[in-house]
Design goal:
about 200 residues, three-stranded antiparallel beta sheet
């Protein structure tokens, strides 16, 4: 499911207008730090550390408030984007030499989620890295649509489907239909939307 979600986000980012920001590891589907990590030991961001210390001081006897504090950190901590880049399936993920301690803990899944493995993946389905690469190539090739084209949202009332049409000045149209529900979902193009497939 992680692969599908990462590709969904890649497709959205490469087909919407504006400047794309791909944070370190996003292009290979790196995950956030797991909730099992000890916040006091593993997190380095000073705001996170100060927030956690405040939670411990104010709520150490309130399990519900402490759990809420952990959820806030898991959702908002900046360290999620700062874990060492996972370059290869070797100790320290290729971020630094195996005998060097990285500045922050390497994610435990580096043997599976890493750039080298995804770049060399020969399976029929594109890896996340390969999907990003193709999306960026298509975006560059069709910049008149994906970078500079007009945007028309389709079905804005469907909370699970984000659908839109991108149109170039020359009239070329591309339809993106993104299903954020996590389940197979039927979707019908609204009758008032003019679009044809080729």
């Amino acid at each position: 499911m992680r692969d599908k979600g990462a590709k969904l986000i890649a497709l959205m980012q490469t087909t919407l207008g504006g400047t794309i920001f791909v944070y370190q590891g996003e292009e290979i589907g790196m995950r956030n730090a797991p909730t099992s990590w000890d916040i006091s030991e593993e997190y380095k961001d000073i705001e996170t550390i100060n927030y956690w210390k405040k939670c411990q001081k104010l709520y150490r006897d309130d399990a519900e408030q402490m759990a809420f504090g952990k959820r806030v950190i898991h959702m908002k901590a900046r360290d999620h984007a700062r874990t060492p880049m996972q370059w290869e399936p070797k100790k320290n993920a290729g971020f630094c030499e195996p005998d060097v301690k990285p500045w922050m803990r390497v994610m435990d899944d580096y043997e599976i989620i890493n750039a080298e493995t995804q770049m060399n993946d020969k399976s029929a389905e594109l890896s996340i890295w390969q999907f990003w690469r193709r999306g960026l190539k298509d975006r560059k090739e069709h910049a008149d649509v994906f970078v500079y084209g007009d945007y028309q949202e389709v079905s804005p009332d469907d909370e699970n489907i984000f659908a839109y049409i991108r149109t170039s000045d020359a009239g070329d149209k591309w339809l993106a239909v993104l299903n954020f529900s996590g389940k197979a979902k039927e979707w019908t193009l609204p009758a008032d939307v003019e679009f044809w497939a080729c």
